[in-house]
Amino acid sequence: MAESSRPKPRGCSTICLAIDHDHYQQVVHSAQQFRLWLDQAFRDRPELFPKAFAQGFTLKDARRSKKTGLYLRRIRCKATAQAFTVRPSFVLPYMAGYTAQAEKALLLRSFGVPFWALARVFGRDPLYWHRLEIALGRNSLVGTSVRQAALPEHLLADEHHQTLDGVKVYVATTVAQGCCLGATLSPSADEGGLTTAYGVFQQEAVNVKADYQPQTVNADGWAATRAAWQTLFKWVVVLRCFLHGWLNIRERGKHLQEVFRTLGEKVWHAFRAENRRSMAQRLRRLGEWAKANLKGVVLDQVNKLCARAGEYGQTYEHPGCQRTSNMLDRVMRARNRYWDRGQHLHGSVEAADRHCRAWALLYNFVPWSPATTKAHEGWRCPAERLNQHRYHDHWLENLLVSASLAGVRQ
To answer: Taking the model in full, what pTM does it have?
Structure first.
């Protein structure tokens, strides 16, 4: 499972830069041209380089990959003596192939197409495509997905119930700005297990910004989730999701027909109140109406909703916060489809955890449909919309460049 002190991924010693194949072949064989190219790339995109690069570097050595035949160079930062491999974006990590040969298969994989089917259509064998996807999970989700934008101040969190070889596990999921920024496997849903799992998001966020402190996190009423977030971020305000309160009512009151429709209108009328005081008034009126028109378990759930007016009212004190879990639910629905088609999680715990993280990166970077892209002003995926930027027009190369140094900043 995820540990509180997660080791740095092996890929954090690799700098990935956007460059086309022909241009790369021209510069890589000349030390002078290679240095000029790196200097220009650093001026354009310093966030893709280690901080010590600014104090100067030397060319360390070069080698030719046995897998691809591609010539690669390594550099050494003068300030730290640390060595880094410079990899062009048109080749996959670990020299496993070229992005042009893998992007269609990984695009289909994001929709849950099984590995055997990918092997049938694109060649290789199922384990090749499995390893290719799992390798993406080595990268920092926060560091890779949030490159040009500031870290979100308002988050959503919940646990996705899943099975690993038939044993129930939980995927601690953190979402913000439409991106999945945390997806870590936990063996239990108690406070200790969730603190460790959500702690991976905290470590990755702090690695990007040392003093990172979110303002709010929207969660359901699970006490362990609330306790975990308050342990990890001392000043965070844990907001109760209004939608979950309504869902508890809906599950028990759908048989009421016309009365249920009236009930729903009154509940959401309270939600749409302009301020905290108005919301409290509307919930009081809802409680009075429910006492006169409802009974049994439905009345109990409405009374619970009304009794939480103070918790729901906190959202008015934090403009921009998430009042419901709708954004997180969209991520969960996509993940549900993915795991259902793949017959859930299998293999070792470490591989399953990386599989969850790999899916999150695919969700953030795989392009939307043309209609959805048009609706989002030409931004093609959640990560592009968040950053208002793309490193490369090819979605997989954009992901790989964003994952330069495995997303590790410090």
So the answer is: 0.90
